[in-house]
Amino acid sequence: MQTIRRVLISVSDKTSLVPFAQGLRHIGVEIVSTGGTAKLLKEHGVPVQEISKFTGFPEILDGRVKTLHPKVHGGILADRSNREHLRQAKRLGLQTIDLVVVNLYPFESVAGRRRAPMAELIEQIDIGGVALIRSAAKNFQSVGILCKPSQYGEVLRELQRNGGRLSEATRFRLSVEAFSETSYYDSVIHQALAHRYPETLPMPDKLVLGASKRQVLRYGENPHQSGVWYQWPAAAGAFAGLAGARQLHGKELSFNNLLDLDAAMQMVSAFKKPCSVVIKHNNPCGVACADRLVDAFRRAFGADSVSAFGGVVGFNRTVDHATAKSVSASGFLECLIAPGYQKDALRVLKAKKNVRIVEVAGLPGKSSRRCIDLKQVSGGLLVQGPDQFRKKPEQWRVVTKAKPTAAQKKDLAFAWTVAKFARSNAIVIAKGDRTVGIGTGLTSRVDSVGFALRKAGPRARGAVLASDGFFPKPDGPQLAIKAGVRAIVQPGGSIQDPEVIRIAEKAKIPMLLTGERHFKH
Prior knowledge:
Cytidine Deaminase, domain 2, 19 helices, 18% strand
């Protein structure tokens, strides 16, 4: 065990510091401190030696340089088991430092403010603090390092139990936590500065990611799997998304709830009109737009009311009283997410004890387009840019003599938007700003068509169909046309395109090619 005789304290966040320092003094630890930290401790009657007296050199450059001194880092980095280190320390008059207590400038909170001036950001980049943490963490065999107020109580209790000594096991664990802290801090700086200069964002040679633990979940996708919710730093400049949401009512959110809530939020944000979506297992089972939110919900729920049972519902408008009453009358639903809820609507919804009600202040906007999509594979990550619509419906190519009507164009655009959010092979059948049948996640595209048609039933007659990928054979369109589908949009690009188009031509229905696909695996 290492006896703690001298501690260096230099903190930005002074939470719980005074009682901790008082406890250290009570067991005879000498305290060296800097600037505002020393001032606070003195005000509370804790004897401290100021850093300038310890080093014999004043704090300079508005405090930018105060602990970057050989007497500080020599005192921390001296290996107590190395006789030559100890001889040099004695010859140079270095006093060893056995415990370092440091937390860093609040860069993340400043960078998280919109339009924070670059000069202010730069001043919040901690240099001396990071150097102190790294020095102490490197020399954990001789030195302890504390970089979070949450660590104070446990360490003080160990020192009190052991007569001022700190075990190597504790010092090693604190070292690992310290390197995590500096790594995260640097990642936040990188993400914040990269956001200011977007040309540095796409696919760098070294991918730097930093996320902080928001919540330990009851479990993951299944009860035998652990689950934790991490969130990106606000400093990254991306839309906060679900991490910026508030839960207003209901049981604790689960891993699967969060996945479905995010899918619902992403989908409703793709539509300008009042929109509602019902999500089940990360897939839409009903989507609708209408002039009134209550009508959008009724139509989305009615698109597949069997699958909607126990689903997650999303809205892109504040939920009003009429919509809340309709939701309440629709049976068991797991979660709701919306930009807001009227007071009387919230009262109605809260009458259902188990429904989880989530409010997300804003829906994804332009800033979210800079987000990257990550998928883990064994041994690494696959990284891609977000899937955005590059081509507008007016740029689609009509490849049949039959041209779509204005109503069909509108429905085709709606169905195509929904198809982007459904798992491949995705088939969406829609009519009048509403899905009537969705086939998703199947391994055969013709099977997806068949599933969507079964869900649609007689509602397929006169509807339109969107496919997220090309038709490899004419069988899918043949099946849809036989059921009464009257217009089709698909990416095109199959070697069988001429045969597929011929089927539509023969049926005298319009077929449009988007020239881009939207697979979602």
